[in-house]
Design a protein that fits this description.
The chain is 20% helix and 46% strand. By secondary structure, it is α+β, with helices and mostly antiparallel strands. It folds into two domains: 5-40, no CATH class; 43-110 and 118-175, Nucleoside Triphosphate Pyrophosphohydrolase, CATH 3.90.79.10. A hairpin with a 3-residue loop joins strand 1 (5-14) and strand 2. The longest helix is centred in the last third of the chain and has 14 residues, at 162-175.
């Protein structure tokens, strides 16, 4: 069986969250092809649920969509940060809450065809007020939505962010009856 082989890899862009590499590969048919690879920091998505079964979302502007979208709190790892620490920090930065219970519920590869970003999903409960300052470039509106309405919104196409949809899917066994 033929294998893929990386022949050459050069970083052509360095950014704060991701780099872009040009990667020349030998394919199983022995032909060479050059790809662009986004080398992205790993990240977390947190599904915060309060004692009243409200899910806490953030609404923020996303350049890729050129509009504001509703999504769960999320963010990239700081240097040497583990997934749970990152989840706790992002929860405090984005919705001003900490969680007495923070449970990892899943993992996924975001866009394996062209990026390295790996996502960890957490369910956060027993929330208490515990804010950290938001990032200077984030303008976030916190939105609480009852659990039963959240899944209705998904099926109506009102929640379209992939990481949010994945977290909602992973959370079903932990949330009880919808």
């Amino acid at each position: 069986m033929s294998e893929y082989q990386i022949l050459k890899r050069d970083t052509v862009f360095n950014g704060p969250i991701f780099n872009v590499d040009k990667v020349e590969m030998r394919l199983p048919n022995q032909k060479n092809k050059t790809y662009d690879l986004v080398v992205h920091k790993n990240a977390v998505t947190i599904l915060p649920v309060d004692a009243h079964r409200n899910i806490w979302f953030v609404r923020q502007y996303r350049l890729g969509m050129e509009k504001e979208i509703l999504e769960l709190p999320a963010g990239v790892f700081n240097d040497k940060e583990d997934p749970e620490t990152c989840a706790g920090r992002e929860l405090r930065e984005e919705i001003g809450m900490s969680a007495d219970v923070l449970r990892k519920i899943g993992e996924s590869i975001m866009s394996p065809g062209y990026a390295t970003e790996y996502m960890y999903y957490f369910l956060a409960s027993e929330l208490t007020k515990d804010p950290l300052p938001q990032d200077d470039d984030e303008f976030i509106e916190v939105v609480k939505i009852p659990l039963e309405k959240v899944y209705e919104m998904v099926y109506r196409g009102e929640i379209i962010d992939t990481k949010t949809l994945a977290a909602l899917l992973y959370a079903i066994p932990f949330l009880g009856p919808l």
